[in-house]
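Homework help board

Subject: predicted structure for assignment chain

Our instructor gave us this sequence and asked us to write out the predicted structure in token form, then describe one feature. I got the tokens but I'm not sure how to describe them. Can anyone check?
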Amino acid sequence: MTDEITTRARIRLEAAALFRNKGFNGTSMADLATEVGISKSSLYHHFSSKQALLSEIIELTVNRVTPVVSEVAESDLPIAERVRTAIALHTVAAIRDRDAIACFIEEGRYLSPDFMTTHIANRDRYERIFRDMLKEGIATGDFVEQDVGIAAKAILGMCNSVVRWYQPSGRYSPEEIAAEIAEFVVRGASPAPTLGLTREEQVHARST
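My token output:
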């Protein structure tokens, strides 16, 4: 059983890397079998099709991140801190699991209708977490009035972009990059007169 799990996980890892580098359509099951070091028939024993494989990579990726971000969104932290923390968590996850995240944001469009339904539902459920936090921040006056649908897409697009440009040899660690992006978003969403003030000062500024 352990070997079964290990082989299946290894197939997903190698497939995510190939899909990211060569594209879903540019990668064959024969390519993947060679990369993993197993026969093509053995590969089909684990996954019935390339579509099923891509779908599982994407679904597992979303299911790893969503509960963690949901927990932050539902916590008792101030809304700005929740948004900041959620963005940081998402960005670090994107950097550390770049191949799988790239499959989610780039290759998911190639899923067949049967798998696409689940993909879209998971994507929308995740995006809704950010929309709801932004709505709350607007309602409390912590964030400026804005279209939360556009804002959520812009935020996630910025976070996901690290998949394309992050370099392990670069100047900043994943956590430092995530903190920079999170702070940039929160500052941009906050009312200008209250930037840099403590929460007590922000409340006073809004009441005068």
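Reply (TA_rk): Your tokens look well-formed. For the description, you could write something like this. The two ends are 66 Å apart (CA to CA). That's the kind of observation they're looking for.
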